[in-house]
Design a protein that fits this description.
alpha/beta; 5 helices; Rossmann fold
């Protein structure tokens, strides 16, 4: 599916499951810990500077943000997890809202792909692995995106990706897609994956 990334807007920031969009339009969701770069990835994909707001205070907002792309699909920014300073009530609210998106979404059949973001510098956290296991257990299609690759040298990046594939993701067939919002590395590859998923 081809679409015009210049025709994009924030449709709704949903704080409750009742606010989720109710349309058959394909959805591509982004998951990851707070400050992993989800907003920057969205802005890079769409060629915008600030459509998705990059927060200076990670973990502050708990909403599911639906971005309407060319009236053809939604990019869905899920609330970030793993923020240490978040209160227990806040963590429960995040867990409930995220689970509701996956399990009680009125347009759940429209979810075509989840982009699971991890910081290439630290590798997957326990929360990342828990999220990946959740998607595997519920047969939710996903791709792993290794963000902030510009923070490493080419040698360091190659070594980090090799370690991920040989250890953490050994035997799973998961091959992380390197991505940088600074250099735009991986942008075209992600667009191809999104277009293919939306088509299917």
């Amino acid at each position: 599916m081809k679409f015009n990334v210049n025709n994009a807007s924030l449709r709704i920031s949903a704080g409750r499951a009742q606010q989720f969009v109710r349309e058959p339009k394909p959805q591509i969701a982004l998951s990851g810990r707070s400050n992993v770069g989800k907003s920057s990835l969205i802005n890079t994909l769409l060629g915008r500077k600030s459509l998705a707001r990059v927060s200076s205070a990670p973990g502050k907002t708990i909403t599911v943000n639906f971005y309407d792309i060319d009236k053809k699909l939604y990019l869905v920014d899920l609330p970030g997890y793993g923020y240490a300073k978040r209160s227990q009530d806040s963590k429960r609210a995040w867990s409930t809202l995220t689970e509701d998106y996956f399990l009680k979404n009125p347009s759940g059949d429209a979810l075509r792909l989840v982009l699971q973001l991890i910081d290439i510098r630290t590798g997957p956290t326990d929360d990342d692995i828990m999220m990946i296991n959740f998607m595997v257990d519920h047969d939710i299609p996903f791709e792993v995106v290794a963000t902030k690759t510009d923070k490493l040298s080419k040698t360091q990046l190659a070594a980090s990706l090799e370690v991920l594939e040989r250890t953490v993701f050994a035997g799973t067939g998961i091959k992380p897609i390197p991505f940088s919002s600074v250099t735009r590395e991986g942008r075209d590859e992600l667009m191809r994956r999104i277009e293919a998923a939306a088509e299917g």
